[in-house]
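User: I've been trying to design a sequence by hand for this structure and keep getting stuck. Would you show me what you'd pick, starting by listing the structure so we're on the same page?

Assistant: Good idea, let's start from the same input. This is the structure you sent:
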């Protein structure tokens, strides 16, 4: 069974709290886990709309605003599903963000162990043929 996890990771700078504390921080939020990709895209896009309402789109030398690169089944410049969206060439934010849809595969542990063991045996037989 597959489900789809939508998260946004924010990367930003902050004043260190201690001598060994980094100035570079990150915070990941979970938008939700969804049963189908369309629902994941819709909810991810709602979150991106919040960012769009607070930050301006990039403007390129030709004067055109950046296209809203959002999640969609046929989105992106290559016509394939968007699984990662960043602020680069999209929004002018004072931080980096990475919105993504991750496919979660729910599998039976016994079946998974069996599949991995079979793969290991195939690899061992392959290596024996290569070494012969």
């Amino acid at each position: 069974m597959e489900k789809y996890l939508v998260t946004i990771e924010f990367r930003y700078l902050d004043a260190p709290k201690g001598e060994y504390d980094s100035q570079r921080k990150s915070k990941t939020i979970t938008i939700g886990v969804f049963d189908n990709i369309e629902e994941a895209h819709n909810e991810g896009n709602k979150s991106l709309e919040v960012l769009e309402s607070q930050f301006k789109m990039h403007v390129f030398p030709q004067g055109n605003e950046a296209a809203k690169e959002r999640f969609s089944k046929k989105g992106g410049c290559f016509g394939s599903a968007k699984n990662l969206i960043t602020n680069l060439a999209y929004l002018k934010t004072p931080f980096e963000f990475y919105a993504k849809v991750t496919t979660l595969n729910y599998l039976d542990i016994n079946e998974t162990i069996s599949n991995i063991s079979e793969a290991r045996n195939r690899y061992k037989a392959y290596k024996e043929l290569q070494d012969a």
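That's my pick for every position. To get oriented when you compare it with your attempt: The helical segments are 37-54, 109-131. The chain has a mean pLDDT of 89.
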